[in-house]
């Protein structure tokens, strides 16, 4: 999971991690990886 490498989501509840991951997908990841 690329997101976990950039921003650890382990401490977050599974549902919270999923909610955070949606807006990040294709948005923040482009800024971080690109």
UniProtKB/TrEMBL annotation:
Organism classification: unclassified sequences, metagenomes, ecological metagenomes
Protein name: Uncharacterized protein
